[in-house]
Each structure stands twice: as structure tokens, then as C-alpha cells.
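User: I want to check something. If I give you two sequences, will you return the structure for each one separately, not as a complex?

Assistant: Yes, each is folded on its own. Here is the first sequence with its structure:
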Amino acid sequence: MLVTIVAGARPNFMKISPIIKAIKLQQAEGHDIHYRLVHTGQHYDKKMSADFFEQLGIPEPDANLEAGGGSQAEQTAAIMVRFEKDLIEHKPSVVLVVGDVTSTMACTITSKKLCIPVVHVEAGIRSGDMTMPEEINRIVTDSICDHFFTTSDVANNFLRKSGVEDSRIHFVGNTMIDTLLQNLDRLQQPDCWNSFSLKEKDYFLVTLHRPVNVDDPANLKKLLDTTLDVTETYKIVFPVHPRTKKILETINYQHERLFQIDPLGYLEFIYLVKNAKAVITDSGGITEEATVLGVPCLTLRNSTERPETITLGTNELVGVNPENLKPYLQKVTNGNWKKGGVPPLWDGNTSGRIVEILMKLY
């Protein structure tokens, strides 16, 4: 049995790392299962790609399609053309895609047109926001893939309502949490910890990259102004996404309590999440990590595809209006944030469950 595993962007790497480890465990026990790792090259910034492979123990890809750059349409086309050639040359038993990036959708379409089955890890999640490219990627992928590995009952129910049979839905948990729990004792203190004199629970961590939050310089400035005004004496640590950096440079935004740094490796970034007073983000994956770590999380979006981080976890949906931030920040600074808990099956054993099911299916 040969599984082609697709990774294309930073969120994918945390999801495939434990799956590869689970396959190797089965191999060590004598089972006939092998994998081929294809990196589409969708993210090509070193901090967005290469560091994650090294830190998470992901082996060198068997193929790098080098399809980064260009518009989403150009990227999709490049991935499909190059992935098709790889599949024809190395035909697998099944293709495994993860998450909701462009690579996920493009490689699913390509595989299905070659009549190769596809399984989708993190299937069935929806934000309801069709302005998000990720939502389109999810819908297309889930409409044609063969089996669905899900993170929550919400995802299970959505797939059922869409007409997917229970035999194709596999509630396994969250592979990102596998990676988180496997690396908690390996976290690395980033250089900025000492250079900024950071202390546990004495700073806020900010990540922003979505167009609605960062593309308008005035809106981005208002978000940061509001955060700095309400957090009073707390330091704000801001690993700046390349997209956001371009906007910040146009307005030359600076503040003595705002520390703008380059994107971090996984082990350094999670160190900052774990020790933060709270996280302010527009990322979906970070809400999951904050929930498991018990860290308050303020999500600057109008909708989320991860509602369990709100109903069960430490996350709250703030919206994209900068004014909405104030009462949520005050809750954090006053110590009135909800405690939260961990969703079912987010236990670190998801990847093992996935691989066991794959061996039964294929």
C-alpha cells in the first residue's frame, strides 16, 4: 500500500508530521504501508516552510513541485499540472490531503481525474464565509473525495446533512493536536524572549494575515491602536506575516510596547502561545492550539470553521471591527476569561487512528 501525502503550506506541516510518524510505527511492526511525500511548494518562505520540516522531524519530500508564487489561479494550475505528472509516474493506492489550502483542492481534483481515491484529513469544517478562499477549497475537496477524517461532531453532522454516508465519515480527532502534544517538551525559547524581557503571562501574542484585517492600512492601524490602548502596560509580540509586513511598512507603524518580529519556527512560536496572557489572531489553527493549552484566544473574524474552540474551548469570536476588541481585551486583563476545556478525541492519538483506518480501507 502506497499513500501519497500532500503538503503545501505551513498549516499542512503540523498535520502531516504525526501521520508520517504513525505510518513508520506500522512499518516497524511489519505492515505493508509506505508513503510518498509531495511538497507542492505553495509556501516558499523559509520560515513558512523549511524550518517546519526540520523542527517537526518531517523527512525531505520525495518531490517538490515548486509551485509557489503567482495568483491563486496560477498556483492552482501549476500544482495540478505538476502533481499529475508525479501521480502518473508514482501511482499510489490513495492520496491523502490535509486542511484547506490551495494545494488541498488542486491535488484532490487532479487525483480524482486520474481515478485515484482521495482521503481528506480535517474534512467537513465550514465557516459559511464564501469570501474566504479556504472555504471554497473545503467545499470542492469534500464534494469529490472518498473518505473524510474529521475533528468534531460539528463536522460529522455537516457531512451527513450534505448526503455523505456514515461509512465514509471517520471521527478521529485533530492531528494538529498530535503534533502539539508530541512537542510540548521540545519547545524552544525564542531569541526575543530575553531581548524583549518577556515574562510568562505578561504579554499578548498577535498574528494577523487575512485581507479583511490587514489590507487596509487604516484598519490595521486601528486594530493595533485599540490593542495597545486597552492592554495598558502589557507588551505585544507580533510575528509579522509577509503579507502584513508590506502594509505595516507603508505606514511605518511603531510603538514602544509593540515588538514586531519575523515569522518563527513551530517550536518557538508555540512557546510564545503557551506562555502568553492571551492570543489575538485571525488564524483558525492557532485557536485550536490555544484551546488545548488553555490560553485565552480572541479571533478577529466574523465566522469560524472551528466552533468547538468557542463552545468548548478558550476561543471567542470578536469580529473584524476594531471597536469590538475592547470588551474582550478588558475581560482578559481583568482576569474574567472563561476557563474552557479540550474537545473530544483531541488527545494526541489521532494519527494512529487515521493510519489504522487507511490500512483497512486500502
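And separately, the second sequence with its own structure:
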Amino acid sequence: MTESANSLPGQKRVVLVSDGTGETASQMTKAAMVQFEGQNVYFTRYKNVRNEAQIEAICEDAARNRDLVVYTIVSPQLRHFLSSKAREFDLLCVDLLGPVLRGLASYFGYEPKAIAGLLHDVNEQYFQRIDAMEFTIQHDDGRDMTALDKADLVILGISRTSKTPLSMYLSHQGWKVCNIPLIKGFDIPPEVFAIDQRRVIGLTIDPEDLSIIRRNRLQRLGQERGGEYADPDKVQDEVEYAAELFKKNRRWPVFNVTGKALEEIASEIIKLMASRRLAPLHTLETIPSSQS
């Protein structure tokens, strides 16, 4: 089986017609073709078919060699038009989507949206989320400073301020996040200052709560004696150190994570980004002006 515009001697053609990418029609038809061994078939795919003139031209072309027409079209009007044209040209055609849509409409009690290309949009969003998650994992805990200009968000904070879980949560929303630990005695990587500073944020936390969080972590790891890591005075010093850094860089908004769920913190961050008219860099949509 091949997919092309040109036939070879002895080949039969299946014409795939879709108001989207045609991938559904292609995959379903090829899956069915596995049951028909020895057939010399090739496919011609017509994508983004959205009007009657296109359908008429396709049917006229298919009629020359009595090709099989297989289509996935969400518009009931265009499906009806294609079906009528197929009868007019004496073509065999298969509607892959219409019966499913009618069955679902009967089951749910209302008509479908009939908007072309929605599955493609859903798939695009899925792959964008996967890309964001992979980026975020690669740039977790300051491990990789490359491609920092591709980050939608850069999160700075001392140890155990929820940088990693927050970054992962945001990546599931499609945000590419780089989180970088703030360690006293070590400079912030210069790459941070080379990017859009509106995309850099800081995290802070109540010192007493942080001391408890660190102590609990040490206990889970079986390290009852953690030295200065969970020492209240050491923790207080780290929180103050981070506060001084944030004070020097006033363009970085600071979020206090004390006692807050990840969803709450993420919601606050996304709301701030929206107010700044900033969205994930890979998205094409713009943020409505009412949010500015």
C-alpha cells in the first residue's frame, strides 16, 4: 500500500477526503486493508476539504477510474453533498465519521459541534504538553542552562520550596519551566539575566515551616542527623539570603508557598503571566486584552 498522487499499472486507488488532516481516514482504511492481502492499492489524500466545489472536483476526478472514496467530514451538509455527488457519479463511497456522530448524538441527546479540525487541535495540545514536560525534566534543579531562552518560566528558590513539583505541575499545563536552586555562596547563573526578566519568578516560604519540611524529609531518608540542613538558624539564614536576592531584582515577583497547594500556587503564577500578556512561547493563541 502506498500513499501518492500517481498510480502504477494494475493499481487501484482509494481516495481519502477529510476536512482536517485526513490522518484518521488514512489510518482506519489502512488498518482495514490488512484484511485484504494481495491487493495493489494506493491512496490519494485530500486534506482540509471545506466546501462543495472541492468535493465536486474530487468526485469528478475519482469517477474517471471508479475509485473508492473514503471520507471523514464533520459537517452534515458536506457529508450529504458528498454522498449525493457520489451517487451522481456512480461512485462507491464510505462515510467513516457520519454514523459514529449520529450514534453519539442520539445517545447524548444533542447534535455535535460539527467544527472541522478539532482532533488535530487536541493532538497538537497533547504534543505541546509532552514537549513542555520533557523540557522541564531536562532543566530541573538547574541541571541544564542551555536553551533557557526557550523557557516559559524560570523559577528560583532555596531547597524544598516546591520548585520541582511546581515545575512539573505547570509543565502538565503546557509551560516549559526551568527551576534553579539558590545556594548561598554561589552566583545565580548569568543565563538567567539574559532572558526576558518578566518570565523569572521567585519562591519563598516561612522559615519555621521549611525547617519542619526539611526535618521530615531527612527522617524519610533515614537521616535523623542532618547537620545544618534542617537547623532553624541555618534555614532562617537561607530564607533571608533569598529575600535579599529578590530585593535586588525587583522585576522578579515572589510567591510565598507556605501552606499552599500546588494548584493554588500555579494558578497565581498563571494569573500573573496572563496579566503580563505572557503565555507559553510555543502557543499561537494570544491572551485576551481583558486580562491585561
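Because they were folded independently, the notes below concern the second chain alone. The mean pLDDT is 87. The radius of gyration is 28 Å.
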